[in-house]
Model the fold of this input.
Amino acid sequence: IVDEMRVIPNLLQVIYNGIELPVQEEKSPFFHLQSVFPRLVEQIPIVLYLGRQDSEKGIDLLLYAARLLQARKIPMQLVICGSTAKGGEYRKVLGDLGEHLGLSIHHAGSVSPQILDALYAHSHCVVYPSVNREPFGLVVAEAMSHGTPVLVPDYGGIGEVIQHGKKAGGLTFNTWDSGDVARQLERLLLDEALYRTLAGNTRKLAARFSVDNMANDILAHIGIFPNDVFASAPPSAIQTDVQS
Done:
């Protein structure tokens, strides 16, 4: 942006996307998931990929990693769901690849908000194996807002989403490296102390990306501060805004 559009660097500011934080910490009932994924069982950890099912998202890397963990007899249930921008061909490729690898995949397309919340809440972790240089990860922030740790590539801006200071809500893996996806996923599945620490950080880290924070950052960047707005508004306007 600076080089091509000649924007002055100090006029630029990173403003993260906003997400709607869960209004309560209670999990949606597990049986909601079984309406879409009837073979899921509650006792085995769920590893979730949720997002666009397209080639640049690196879902094949997750399948290879799952095969490595299956060979090591590490129990897990792999759930893959989400829309696609390029038709159903890649979904078919994933199905064929999973069958070739001998994996049992719980596979679906887009899911309802109710199922989405239940998936986040009941998954042991969310894996985002993208080989694209992602600037952000809404799914990653949403997963952490439900208390669920995540595994993301060490490429692009997505690593900023899971870490702030010395606190992290997940792990990173070497991009394009399915073996490292397997190694880091194995840590999330077997290292209980590590998992508890990461899970304990997730909600606070996700709260940075609230819609309110995004709106406040935008207003502050253009020189409008919420306190100034309320201070200059008549009482009737403030009352109307609060009620709405």
Notes: Confidence is low (pLDDT under 50) at residues 240-244. The radius of gyration is 20 Å.
